[in-house]
Amino acid sequence: MTAKVTIPNTFATATTAIPLSQLDNNFSNVSAAINNALTYSNYAVDTGLADNYAITISGQVTTYAAGLSFQFKAANTNTGASTLNVNAQGTQSIVRTDGSALAAGDILANAIVAVMYDGTNFQLMNDAGGKAETFSNVTVTGTATINVANVTTFSPAITNAQLANSNVTIGNTAVSLGGSINTVNNLTLVNANVSSGNVTVTTVQDQYGNVRAIASVGDKTTAYTLTKADSGRYVTIGSGGSINITNNVFAAGDVVSIFNNTNVNANIVCTITTAYIAGADTDVASANLATRGIATILFTSNVACVIQGNVS
After folding, report:
1. Is 74 exposed, middle or buried (CB count within 10 Å of its CB: 0-12, 13-18, 19+)?
2. Closest Cα to residue 234, out of 168, 290, 189, 295?
3. Which stretch of DSSP H or E encloses residue 159?
4. How far apart are CA 1 and CA 32, in angstroms?
5. What are phi and psi of 54, to 5 degrees?
6. Nearest Cα to 247, choosing from 268, 273, 275?
7. What burial class does residue 113 get, using C-beta atoms within 10 Å of its C-beta: 0-12 exposed, 13-18 middle, 19+ buried?
8. What are the strands of the beta sheet with 145-147, ordered from one edge?
9. 270 near 311, Cβ under 8 Å?
10. pLDDT, tens digit only, all 312 positions of the chain
11. Residue 116 · residue 122 · CB < 8 Å
12. Spatial CA neighbour of 1 closest among 42, 32, 34, 60
């Protein structure tokens, strides 16, 4: 304790009458100590060197015991693994709560350091280095907002990060991925909403591959009915293959490309309610795609489409 309790008078060896004033004086000292907040704080100013901290506590600290806690004002910034010596009882390592040794800057000069003895080492109980927290292998469930306003750099680079079902808010629009954040490698956004900033990346991929390329659905050598998953991709017609377009599969704006990789015309069956060949005002029930020809089907609603390309 910082405020030491002193009992000025003792009575065990008294041989004469003891004035009550002496007893009152003893109780006054005890009362003052109980009511002094410093009594409950083991605080001292460090008098040691960097990495080798030393304090003297007014009170009886004759041995280290688990649960014993101290606070001290560090005289120096640590440069690595560090120790603490209390009342010259011997040095004990100061470690992080995970048991690892301190790194340079975990304790800054003039910082108030809180430690607790765990039976083996002193554990650092507070952030005495004023550093930003570092997180690894973090799983976010539900919706999370990560606000990096006023952040200008990330070091080291963000790598192998995945944000699932999360909202990422970049509070400072001057901070952009690929801008003042130096490098972002293997960043995966799963059902994520990125807002209030610019995302600059080299390659953007979805479940089908690079979004700058048209992904292939594969070769179809039998009658094939287009599915919603074909939107934004191309279907190859092989020998014996044909295409069927039906209602209530696609929405306005969906596009599917068809490539006839045979030496004969391929049939596109239009069971969808309305199908036009681009440039003509006739609803067609089918269209012929020329050999090695390409057709693009643009859906204008869930029951209407326009076919453009090498078709008749």
Report:
1. buried
2. 295
3. strand 158-159
4. 14
5. -145, 135
6. 273
7. buried
8. 145-147, 167-169, 193-195
9. no
10. 455 556 665 666 667 776 767 666 766 766 666 665 555 678 899 999 999 999 998 766 668 999 989 999 999 999 999 999 999 999 999 999 999 999 998 999 999 999 999 999 999 998 876 655 555 555 555 555 555 444 444 445 555 555 555 555 544 333 334 333 445 555 565 555 665 555 666 667 776 777 778 889 999 999 999 999 999 999 999 999 999 999 999 999 999 999 999 999 999 999 999 999 999 999 999 999 999 999 999 999 999 999 999 999
11. yes
12. 42
For residue 84 the two structure tokens come to 């603490």
Sorted by sequence, the CB contacts under 8 Å of residue 73 that are 6+ apart come out as 43, 44, 45, 46, 110, 111, 112, 113
For residue 80, give both structure tokens: 């690595």
Positive or negative, the CA dihedral 295, 298, 304, 309 is negative
Sign of CA dihedral 54, 59, 64, 68: negative
Contact between 270 and 297 under an 8 Å Cβ cutoff? The reply is no
Domain ranges across the chain: 43-124, 132-202, 214-309
Phi, psi angles (nearest 5°) of residue 258: -125, 135
- CA 12 vs CA 23, 28, 30, 31, 90: distances in Å: 13, 19, 18, 21, 35
Integer distance in angstroms from the first to the last C-alpha of the chain?
95
Element (H, E) at 20: helix 20-34
Instruction: Assign domain 214-309 to its CATH architecture.
Output: Sandwich (2.60)
